[in-house]
Amino acid sequence: RRCAAPARPAQPLPARPGRTPTSRSERCAPLSLPDLESVAALARQLRVDSLRCSPGAGSGHPTSSLSAADLLAVLATRHLRYDWDEPRRPTNDHLVFSKGHASPLLYSLYRAVGAVSEEELLTTYRRLGSRLQGHPTPVLPWVDLATGSLGLGIAAAVGIAPAAKRLDQLPSRV
Questions:
Q1: How far, in Å, CA of 159 to CA of 138, rounded?
Q2: Is 157 in contact with 144 (CB distance < 8 Å)?
Q3: What is the mean pLDDT, run by run of 10 residues, along the chain of 174 residues?
Q4: Using an 8 Å Cβ cutoff, are 157 and 174 in contact?
Q5: Considering only CA atoms, which of 67, 43, 80 is closest in space to residue 174?
Q6: Is residue 52 a contact partner of residue 125, using CB atoms and an 8 Å limit?
Q7: Which pLDDT score is estimated for 123?
Q8: How far apart are CA 170 and CA 105, in angstroms?
Q9: For residue 72, which of 48, 105, 113 has the smallest C-alpha distance?
């Protein structure tokens, strides 16, 4: 379950990363040392991959990704319920990435779960015609909406959450 060291390819996380807690008491339970080490290893790998993809593009905001790596690692391993092989599955949670300029972090997560290859991450980020643009767009099946203007994602999530719960009557979370 651990992500590999930066020099080696990352090991894909399972379709439901880590052990997905079901009850509130499980979700709020303290992490065991091995779980904590696994989350920390994923956060380190996300940081490394975020920094590795940006120089090839010659532009981007790699440091914006660094500040959210721990948060995304915890979300991915402890809370996010998502089938990466079926991105349009109605019961998937919605990961709305309001901090769109930190796209290297999101793309690094996609690499960690095996949805994007290392080659695609390192050679196509911010290239014309690439799926991995400077801000995430719905060209990628795991992206619900394009974000970039700070706050846009929060506003959209405020709409997505009640729509999923009340209109679609789905157990997905935002």
A1: 17
A2: no
A3: 36 44 53 80 96 83 89 92 91 86 94 95 93 92 84 83 77 71
A4: yes
A5: 80
A6: no
A7: 94
A8: 28
A9: 105
